[in-house]
Amino acid sequence: MQRAPRHRSRTRRSARARALATTVGVGALAVSLLGGGNSVAAQAPPESKGTTLSLPSPPGGKNVKVLVFHSSATAESPLVNAGIQAVETIGLTGPAAGRFATEATDDASVFTNATRLGKYNAVVFLTGGGDVLDPAQEAGLEAYMEAGGGFLGVHDAARTEPYSDWFTGLIGARPSGAPSSVQRAVVEVGDRQHPATKSLPLEWKRPDKWFNWAVNPSGSVHTVARLKESSITPAAKPNGWDHPVSWCRDYDGGRSFYTGMGGTVDSFSETDFRDHLRGALAWTNRTSRADCKATIDANYTAERVTQPNQPGQNDQIGEPHGLVTAPDGKVFYIGRGGADSSKPVVTDWNDPNIGKGDGEIHVYDPATKKVTLAGALSVFGNKGGGDELIKNEEGLLGIELDPAFATNGWVYLHYTPHSQINRETRMADRRVSRFTYDFTTGKLNLASEKVLLKWPVQIHSCCHSGGGLAWDSKGNLYVATGDNNSSRFSDGYSGNNPQPNFKGVSFADARRTSGNTNNLNGKILRIKPQKNGTYTIPEGNLFTGDEMDEGGGKTRGEIYVMGVRNPSRIFVDKKTDTLYAGWVGPDAGSPSTTWGPAKYDTFAAITKAGNHGWPFCMGNNQPYRDRGLADPSKPLGWYDCKAPKNESPNNDGLVNVPPVTPNTIWYSPQGGGPDFPRDANGVPSYKLDEQKLLMPWLKGGAQATMTGPVYRHDATSTSNVKWPAYWDGKWFVGDFYDGDQPRHAVLTDPKTVGKGGIPVHAESLKKIIPVGANGIRNLMDWKFAPDGSLYVLDYGRGFFTSDARSALWRVTYKGGEPTPSADQLARKAAR
Questions:
Q1: Residue 283 host element (H or E)
Q2: What is the reported pLDDT for 549?
Q3: Pick from 423, 363, 424, 431: which is nearest to 394 by CA?
Q4: Which of 293, 393, 572, 652 is the most exposed place for a label (fewest CB within 10 A)?
Q5: What's the rounded Cα separation, in Å, for the pair 164 and 87?
Q6: Mean pLDDT, rounded, of the chain
Q7: Neighbour count for residue 717 (Cβ, 10 Å)
């Protein structure tokens, strides 16, 4: 290893010098480091007044070299020797394909020595604060990057060259002040693909000094790791939950990686931190490829692909309520049943057309960019607005395509047929039916219906119909059903008021439905459809259907999950067969020491059959208070989440129901993951001033969960619009609303998922899947297509109707392949 003599003469750059740097510029030093081994003359553009230099191509094979530059304009750093030693050790150890030679210097003239600079595959800045390069030296570094060089900045390098906009871009962000004291923190490692992070723990606990950033770089750089700011006492001007700590980007022709870690001598002796540097160096020195474009907002395009409906028609889209993509890329999407504003909503129960609407199935073909109306079902679903005794959420609720759809054309629909409503009892039959799609005509054959499953629902009072459908890898069909319960009679807390009823059917007691082991509402069902239009019960559901209690059958074998409120969207990741669901909470704006938690909208990653709580418990097993039949306004005891009892007079199932499984994500108007101190019986205090938010990345307000897919990247696909591998395994969670509500991609820990473990990492998607008046304001459903693009339904503006803003959108990726390109890897260049 060569260490050049220290060069101690450092002067602060004047305004005149900064102007000179602009004159010298990148264009004057345009060079190529990516050729086959011969020197490449750097020809300045005709308009440039700079000089012409010649740099040799950087070495490959066994001659990969890394330069460590360690100058400082402020003070000598005790970190330098530890950092140099760490880089040397990294270069000498590990896989042979990743080894390199290290040279270190504090002599900035290396950046104006084209022959010498061209020997290095990457440059590491172990620098302190202040100006360490004069204008010509910075221009040399700029030209080096433009020619395809690699840069790694460590910790204090973010304070180097403070007057240079170009260097700010190279680093990616500047500190807002001094770092914190040394504190042990949790680093959330969100990139499981990049060589700098793929071997690190999901939650990496380590001590360091932690910078805050004057401008958060998220979206303009690719963040590979974030600081969990709640795990420390941050310095002044903290960044909040989105606190990048390590990131990378393809910058000005080269590759730049920065880590805010490495602020202590001990950092450089940590095995995990050395692995972090090793992976960063592998990418910057061109011995490994990596994607540093995946989370840069500008690399995504969101395009509305449907037009507004023609007046008086739903020719493009109905009242959006769900979508699914076909193997050939076509998108099938449904309208619940609300008509446009030109058609009246009938709410008179004496009218035979009470609530009658059209549940429409549209198909978008990306090849032709055309929409066709494949069919419409007559549904009970055009009845909405106003009081809960007037509006209704039934209709066409869910759609799925058979796993063999390409050959059999089978389409499954979850809906409430208008022909089956009883106007006297105000009951209806909900059903899941199979239809056949005609590929020649592009129409659904409505006469081909095979009714797989049906069950009774009350339609006297709104709400909560659910609707989602999904398949697992074993051919089991999951059916999400809402609690079929009014929200109006429990003060916004547990939907457990036993009193109101119509013709003997209680419509405000979710213990009749969600909490009832003998009722199919408020559940996620799992069945195995058969070719003849029937179904069987797969093993592993919550009940067999033969459970006995008090002398009779008290369960339904179709139930996989009970205790859900309104799961409009579900998704099954066929790689793991994990079920992902979300459901809307009640209406209480804040917790009550009398009744229990506020409205918690909920997401759950579900790995086995279970009870997820409603209306007994919510969140991480936070109980509600029971109510008596004689006077429901008077509280009784708290429910026991470990051994809940359904003692409602409206329950015809088991009294002793399964224990409650904690959920993955829950949020209230106050924020994400509210938790409270608990007493000896496990009952939370429910006092706002004692509340702790376990998921500070998440806030609520008006809330309506819309769980999304888990992305699976297809490396064999040649699609040029597919989302990159970075997103593989990430779960997309969103909300109907687009203010402070979630629209995020999250990572769960395989060790705790399905057991109440909360996400270990989250990142916002609000600039990739745009929010706001001209964006996707009311997210209703989202699914990935076979080509790796994302389709999103925007409900529109308003409720129970189609609207000019109701639309299908497509979000595509245009960032390209990982870098460097395969033919520019250093080891290949040396052959």
A1: helix 271-284
A2: 54
A3: 431
A4: 652
A5: 27
A6: 91
A7: 12
DSSP 367: T
Q: What is the CATH number of domain 302-486+494-547+554-581+701-813?
A: 2.120.10.30
Cβ atoms of 369 and 329 within 8 Å: the answer is no
- Domain locations in the chain as residue ranges: 15-179+250-296, 302-486+494-547+554-581+701-813
> Rg (Cα) of the chain, in Å, rounded?
30
DSSP per-residue letters across 73-119: SS---THHHHHHHHHHHHHHSS-GGG--EEEEE--GGGGG-HHHHTT
Tokens read off for 26: 């990148």
How many CB atoms lie under 10 A from the CB of residue 3?
Answer: 14
Strand, helix or coil at 225?
strand
CB 274 within 8 A of CB 261: no
Q: Which residue has the tokens 């101190």?
A: 677
Looking at this protein, which amino acid is placed at residue 556?
R
Report residue 274 as tokens.
Answer: 């050395």
User: What six digits make up the tokens of 637?
Assistant: 């005891």
Dihedral of alpha carbons 408, 322, 391, 584, sign: positive
> Which DSSP string corresponds to 326-365?
-TTS-EEEEE-S---TTSPPP--TTSTTTTEEEEEEEEEE
Cβ 32 vs Cβ 147: under 8 Å = yes
pLDDT one-digit tens code per residue, 100-153:
999 999 999 999 999 899 999 999 999 988 999 999 999 999 999 999 999 999
Question: What distances in angstroms separate CA 599 from CA 118, 363, 577, 589, 809, one per listed residue?
Answer: 61, 36, 29, 6, 30
- Which of the pair, 277 or 14, is modelled with greater confidence? 277
- Give the span between the Cα atoms of 807 and 796, in whole angstroms: 7
Contact in structure between 770 and 792 (CB atoms under 8 Å): no
Taking the CA atoms of 742, 746, 752 and 758 in sequence, report the sign of the dihedral they define.
Answer: negative
3-state secondary structure 789-824: CEEEEECCCCCCCCCCCCEEEEEEECCCCCECCHHH
| 140 contacts 254 by C-beta, under 8 angstroms | no
φ, ψ of residue 535 to 5 degrees: the values are -150, 160
Terminal CA-CA length for the chain: 24
Q: Is the Cβ–Cβ distance between 261 and 267 less than 8 Å?
A: yes
Whole-number Cα distances in Å, 284 to 66, 150, 189, 254:
10, 4, 19, 8
Quickly state the pLDDT bin for 831 (edges 50, 70, 90).
very low
What CA–CA distances, in Å, run from 756 to 155, 202, 692?
36, 17, 17
Question: Count of residues for the chain?
Answer: 831
Burial group, residue 716, by CB count within 10 angstroms (0-12, 13-18, 19+): exposed
Sign of torsion over alpha carbons 179, 182, 186, 187: positive
Count Cα atoms within 13 angstroms, Cβ side, for 236: 3
Query: What pLDDT, on a 0 to 100 scale, did the predictor assign at position 828?
Result: 66
Q: Where are the beta strands (DSSP E) in 2-45?
A: 40-41
What is the percentage of the chain residues whose pLDDT exceeds 70? Answer: 92
Task: Give, for 829, the enclosing helix (H) or strand (E).
Answer: helix 826-829
Sheet holding 692-695, edge to edge: 569-573, 578-583, 601-606, 665-668, 671-675, 692-695
120 touches 311 (CB < 8 A): no
